[in-house]
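Record type: monomer structure entry
Structure origin: computed from sequence
Chain ID: A
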Amino acid sequence: MEIRQLKAFLVIAETQTFTAGARRLNITQAAISMQIRQLEDELGIQLFTRTPRRVIITEAGEALLERARKILNEHDGAVCEVAEIAGGEFGRLRIGTASGTFAVNQLPAIILELNKRRPNVDLTIHSGTSIELVDRIMNGEVDIAFVSLPVDNLNITTETLLADELVAIGHPDHRLANERQMNAVALGDENLILGEQGGNTRRLIDEFFASANVRPNIIMELARQEAINRMVENNLGVGMAGAKSVARSVAAGRLITWAIKGAAIKWELGLARLRGGHFSPVAQEFARLCRESFVEREKELGAKR
């Protein structure tokens, strides 16, 4: 059983076609088909059922899948450690981000600086909800991810970068613009624009309304906080966001905020990675740059207040 065969097996399990798998590995379809055939011959069992449109992983293939991921993770860790001994100039970093605000406002500058310091490193960026990105870390598809906290997984270690208080946000022309706070009942009666289900922030909001026995009037569920903010800025409803994350929009007069009465919902953002996994020099450099970015952001927000 060879590493190249396991890589071929894994990409076909993920893409469900030999054509897409070959394209991802940058080899011919004939070559990837031969590698799978050799692997099946060695194991003495069929790993995929071939159909005209796609391949379907068999029960034996399912049994091999998790072990293959672990073997390849260990292989990648060994390669990274060897590269570290050679100076840590080469390698890869697969970054995940569950925050559209971070991806737009801070991540570009961090990536630019990281590219300057580590020009030979292969960087890729993936987006998704916090839950999706944690799953991708567990599956060995992402090395480090920017997610909302807490993460309910003992195999994941996290580092807090930003702690914020969740507030309600509205348009300056809202009929309650002069109020300082809103309770669960008042919020529940508004046309609410919230994040999609599956993220920690949405979970905290749902728990808040459930504890108050209020069924909120949700008119939109959007994937990105930036999209929610824009909808509210156009007076299409009321949303929720971290107070620090919307401070600039409030200062510019595009949004107003209300404290949420009867709740102190903390919104925390941080970095997540596999507990006990190889923390490469590149990943460590990325984490340092993230810390520095958030320290600078806190200083900027403090200066504006």
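Annotation 1: The chain has three domains: 3-73, 84-160+269-304, 162-267.
Annotation 2: The mean pLDDT is 88.
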